[in-house]
Design brief:
- By secondary structure, the protein is mostly helical.
- The protein is about 80% helix and about 0% strand.
- The protein has ten helices and no strands.
- Helix 2 (about 25-40) packs across helix 3 (about 50-70), helix 2 runs antiparallel to helix 6 (about 110-140) and helix 5 runs antiparallel to helix 6 (about 110-140).
């Protein structure tokens, strides 16, 4: 009985730590705002008659600037690395057509076109950084736990999220949801405001 209670309390602690790590305002402060600030600080060159090589150099300079300003303690890019990352980001690792579409936009639409491309690159970097942060949070808080701990976290979240879950999920035992703690936590975080409003409304009612 004591070990069960200890596991329950530890599961609550882990979920609280994970929720704090994935807090929307925290992610915005750590990732979104620094990227937006670096984007505003970057001076766009003139794009008239820009060659593909010059366009790639601008993207590389922008990525180096962005990493240095937004993530000074993180991985810094050499020029060759920045060029490769620019192509990979704009190509979505699937088709080089996206990169050449960006080149066409930057050169044919002038300064506005290049500015749009840089905004797109900044958004892609933001998304990549957010994904990396989520993977770190999972590896730091969920993966170290054993199977019983994951089942306990799933049980807690299933109970919290029950009003918002489809019937088939409500009836799932925690063992079946132990590998989906992150998805359940996302539902929990998304519905916290609704639960708070409901609780406040109930507390304010007078008979």
């Amino acid at each position: 009985m004591k070990s069960t209670e200890t596991r329950y309390r530890r599961a609550l602690e882990i979920l609280d730590q994970l929720a704090a790590a994935l807090d929307a305002e925290r992610l915005s402060r750590q990732i979104d705002e620094p990227v937006d600030r670096a984007l505003r600080e970057f001076e766009c060159p003139q794009t008239r008659h820009m060659s593909n090589h010059q366009f790639l150099d601008v993207l590389a300079r922008f990525l180096r600037h962005l990493h240095a300003r937004a993530f000074p303690n993180g991985r810094q890019l050499s020029i060759p690395m920045a060029r490769d990352e620019a192509v990979a980001l704009l190509s979505h690792a699937t088709s080089s057509a996206d990169y050449y579409d960006a080149f066409f936009e930057a050169t044919e639409l002038g300064d506005e076109g290049l500015a749009n491309v840089l905004v797109r690159v900044a958004d892609l970097v933001t998304a990549r950084q957010r994904d990396a942060h989520v993977r770190w949070a999972v590896s730091s808080h969920i993966e170290p736990g054993d199977w019983r701990m994951k089942c306990q976290m799933a049980a807690i979240l299933l109970e919290r999220c029950r009003p918002w879950l489809p019937t088939q999920l409500c009836n799932c035992p925690p063992e079946q949801m132990a590998d989906h703690v992150l998805k359940l936590l996302a539902i929990d975080l998304a519905t916290r405001d609704q639960r708070s409003q409901t609780a406040n409304s109930s507390g304010n009612r007078t008979d």
